[in-house]
Give the backbone structure.
Amino acid sequence: MILFVLFLYAFFHFITVTKQLEKTVAKLQHEQKAASHLPHVILISQVFDNPYWRKIEQGAKEAGKLYGVNIEYIGPLRTSIDEQVKLLEKAIASRVDGIIVQNLKDEAFTPLIDKAISRNIPVITIDADAPKSRRIAYVGTNNFEAGQLLGQAVVSRIEGERFIGVIIGTDTSENQRLRLQGFLSVIHQHPRLKVVSVASSSISRIQASIQAEQMLRKHPNISIMVGTSALDAIGIRMATKNLHRNDIQIFGFDDVEETIEAIKNGDIVATVVQKPYDMGYSAVKLMVDHLSGKQIHKEHFTSIEVIDRQNAQQGRNK
Ligand code: BGC
């Protein structure tokens, strides 16, 4: 009798567990099916694990969740035009519903963006525009104005006759070119300030440090150094530390944690901060609007601001 009761108990327990499992599997299958029906948008970054791009990813995924878009974030491990081009080609070949990409070099990216458009895959440029292409919109900083803001940050905080060294992120990208132009347009109005050298960091902190060190050895009269992409100022700071040149005043771009810490302790004077989270979010929102047939503006500029020691302590938005 006892055995029979035990058997019954085990039998019903088995049935209940099986039913629960079936339900869970069905729910998972349903969720998977629903996700595979969502529009699939690929976001191609310049460097996969760069903190600035991670913020773009965060904004894009947040908007993806809200608007029902499946965002796939990809990018090379180190900046490489070739690799980024390959990722773009692959995205076109796999017929995704939309592509969000940065333009690292006009000649390489414009024809590919146009190819995507001709296959009915909408492309939004982010962070660095490709204005000669048929991209449906650009989302990001007005980079000429950002360069001017960097110039004004230097002019208003620095006195006397000074020589300046500049580290830019990449030689070919539209955003770095415009930032440098904007910066020089302001500096050229002040004959007491002179830019003596420009080098590229390949958006790597180590390269920024190596380039800055070489520059400072070659031009010991430089007393101001500026960096125009997210990791340049902290790279420059590594160089000035190595050379024991604490007299160098550093200006940078973006608000990666180390830059803000260095501003708080006085190692970096100021930084021009972009809004990468907003870029990612808005790019996805615009893609959704476009896919649902709405008209969208061709240029969507996100805001910029200067952070120095005075406002670094205050809470800021993403
Ligand atoms: C630039 C991006 C770049 C990033 C690299 C930012 O300032 O806008 O183009 O990828 O810095 O760290």
DSSP finds eleven helices and twelve strands in the chain. Residues 46, 50, 52, 127-128, 169, 175, 203, 229-231, 253-254 surround beta-D-glucopyranose (CB under 6 Å).
